[in-house]
Amino acid sequence: MTLKEQKIGFLGAGKMASAIIKGLLKYGISPENIAAGERWTPAAEAARKDFGIFVTDDNADVVRRSDILIIAVKPKDIAEALSTAGDTEHKLFISIAAGVTINSLEKLVGSNARVIRVMPNICATVLQSATGISRGTNATADDAAIAMEIFSAIGVALEINENLLDAVTGLSGSGPAFIFQIIEAMADGGVYSGLDRATAQMLAAQTVLGAATMVVESGMHPGALKDMVCSPGGTTIEGVAVLEQRAVRAAFTDAVIAATDKSEQLGKKK
Ligand SMILES: NC(=O)C1=CN([C@@H]2O[C@H](COP(=O)(O)OP(=O)(O)OC[C@H]3O[C@@H](n4cnc5c(N)ncnc54)[C@H](OP(=O)(O)O)[C@@H]3O)[C@@H](O)[C@H]2O)C=CC1
Ligand SMILES: O=C(O)[C@@H]1CCC=N1
């Protein structure tokens, strides 16, 4: 069965499920092939209205209708969501929850459960997620292939050993928030110097997009690319010196490590 023929259900229709659904619809999956189970909240109403998908507060109905279930509730809500999922046999479960291990997911879904743990990011909404994928004990090669297909449809996906998924969570799962902070702060700098907010934000965002594209397309070390911008005695090295004085690179490294540690801690709570 191709991805476009699969019935995909979501347990939880909040921010991240919506990002993935939006991406899948952009990719060309029919809304008729997507269902979501959600507490009857504004998130549910928005998913129904915005995406035209089937939305219900009956998780078991979503499971019945779907071949693949994407667990998209907060880590603390997984046990409850799965306890209301009804007959989970013969289904593939893909969890996007931070920190929740394959071992605990398999215990919650059932002993023979086909489980895949993934960590996408919010950029799925514009088909630019960076996603790590780890296959559970009973998931087949076909299951891993379909998970790769789903997350490759909404960005870049790679299979990775589960012991590295917390690091993926700290880096690319949480990373968009760090980059949004950079864009906000750079735009503030532009506004400080007289640019209007909209212009400053557009210039900041396009600069991040362009710089990221150069790293991806050239494969060059970012430090070497930085050197290409820094004219001797010029403007850029003045700014770079300020960032170094404020230990900005160390702060970003530490932010990724802190988010990774938190993902590990969430896993130990289970
Ligand atoms: N946000 C992000 O950028 C990313 C998030 N993730 C992971 O995705 C998951 C979801 O995060 P996010 O989308 O941000 O969270 P949200 O709170 O936006 O979405 C979760 C939704 O699930 C609903 N929900 C809770 N319990 C149940 C239940 N038993 N049955 C059905 N629906 C339920 C919640 O309702 P209510 O609000 O009433 O509780 C909420 O609307 C988390 O596990 C997170 O770790 C992964 C990558 C990136
Ligand atoms: O902050 C969180 O816990 C989730 C997981 C990765 C991004 N957001």
Automatic annotation (TrEMBL):
Major subcellular location class: cytoplasm
GO cellular component terms, semicolon-separated: cytoplasm
Alphabetical UniProt keywords: Amino-acid biosynthesis, Cytoplasm, NADP, Oxidoreductase, Proline biosynthesis
Classification via Pfam families: F420_oxidored (PF03807), P5CR_dimer (PF14748)
Catalysed reactions, as listed in the record: L-proline + NADP(+) = (S)-1-pyrroline-5-carboxylate + NADPH + 2 H(+); L-proline + NAD(+) = (S)-1-pyrroline-5-carboxylate + NADH + 2 H(+)
Domain Pyrroline-5-carboxylate reductase dimerisation: 162-266
Residue stretches making up the Pyrroline-5-carboxylate reductase catalytic N-terminal domain: 7-99
The EC number(s) this enzyme carries: 1.5.1.2
PROSITE patterns: P5CR
Transmembrane segments: none
Domain of life: Archaea
Pathway info: Amino-acid biosynthesis; L-proline biosynthesis; L-proline from L-glutamate 5-semialdehyde: step 1/1
Residue positions binding NADP(+): L11, G12, A13, G14, K15, M16, A72, V73, K74, P75
Residues given in the record as NADPH binding sites: N59
UniProt xrefs under InterPro entries: 6-PGluconate_DH-like_C_sf, NAD(P)-bd_dom_sf, P5C_Rdtase_cat_N, P5CR-like_CS, P5CR_dimer, Pyrroline-COOH_reductase
One of the GO BP terms on file: L-proline biosynthetic process
A GO molecular function held by the record: pyrroline-5-carboxylate reductase activity
Subcellular location: Cytoplasm
Function (record text): Catalyzes the reduction of 1-pyrroline-5-carboxylate (PCA) to L-proline.
Family to which the UniProt record says this protein belongs: Belongs to the pyrroline-5-carboxylate reductase family.
Protein name: Pyrroline-5-carboxylate reductase
Organism: Methanimicrococcus stummii
